[in-house]
TrEMBL record:
Organism expressing this protein natively: Cyprinodon variegatus
Protein name as it appears in the record: Bifunctional protein GlmU-like
Transmembrane segment boundaries: none
Biological classification of the source: Eukaryota, Metazoa, Chordata, Craniata, Vertebrata
CDD domains cross-referenced by the UniProt entry: DUF296 (cd11378)
PROSITE patterns, sorted: PPC (PS51742)
Pfam families: PCC
Cited InterPro entries: PPC_dom
Span of domain PPC: 5-140
Length: 147
C-alpha cells in the first residue's frame, strides 16, 4: 500500500464550450508542472463522453459507453498525473445517472469549473501492476524522485 502525507496547493480553472475536458486538465497540469495533482471538485456540463464501464478487465477493455446529448457533471474525481485516472458521474435531462472511467471525448457544453489539488510534497506516477493488469498509482515523496 502506497501512502504519504503532504501539504496542499489549490488551483482553479474554468473551461468553456466545445473544449475537451480531460485534455484541458492534462494541459493545465503539464503547463504548471504539477507532480501530484488530483481533482477536488468539478461542476459543469458535457455533450459527449466516452467511458469504460465497471465490468472491464485488463483482458477485456471493450466495455465502453459512448454518450451523446446534454449531461450535467455531478461528480468528477481522480488523479491527473501523465496517465490520468479519472471517473465521472453524469446526469441526463431526466436525472438518470451514469458513470465510469473516463477514456476521453468529454466535450464541454456550457462550462466546466474545476478545482485541482496538488500534494506539494509528493509525486504521482503509474506502473503496470501484474495483479490487476492495469497501470496503477505509485506514490513517492519528491525527495525519492529527485534524490
Amino acid at each position: 500500500m502506497a501512502a504519504a502525507g503532504s501539504a496542499l496547493r489549490v488551483h482553479a480553472a474554468r473551461f468553456g464550450p466545445g473544449q475537451e475536458l480531460l485534455g484541458c486538465l492534462q494541459t493545465f497540469v503539464e503547463e504548471r508542472r504539477l507532480r501530484a495533482p488530483f481533482i477536488i471538485t468539478c461542476v459543469g456540463s458535457v455533450t459527449k463522453a466516452t467511458l469504460r464501464l465497471a465490468n472491464a478487465t485488463a483482458t477485456n477493455t471493450n466495455e465502453v459507453l459512448h454518450l451523446s446529448g446534454r449531461f450535467e457533471i455531478v461528480s468528477l474525481v481522480g488523479t491527473l498525473n501523465r496517465d490520468a485516472h479519472v471517473h465521472i458521474s453524469l446526469s441526463d435531462a431526466e436525472g438518470r445517472t451514469v458513470g465510469g472511467h473516463v477514456l476521453g471525448d468529454l466535450e464541454i457544453f456550457t462550462t466546466a469549473e474545476v478545482v485541482i489539488g496538488e500534494a506539494a510534497d509528493l509525486h504521482f506516477s503509474r506502473e503496470m501492476d501484474q495483479q490487476t493488469g492495469f497501470p496503477e498509482l505509485v506514490v513517492q515523496t519528491r525527495s525519492e524522485v529527485t534524490g
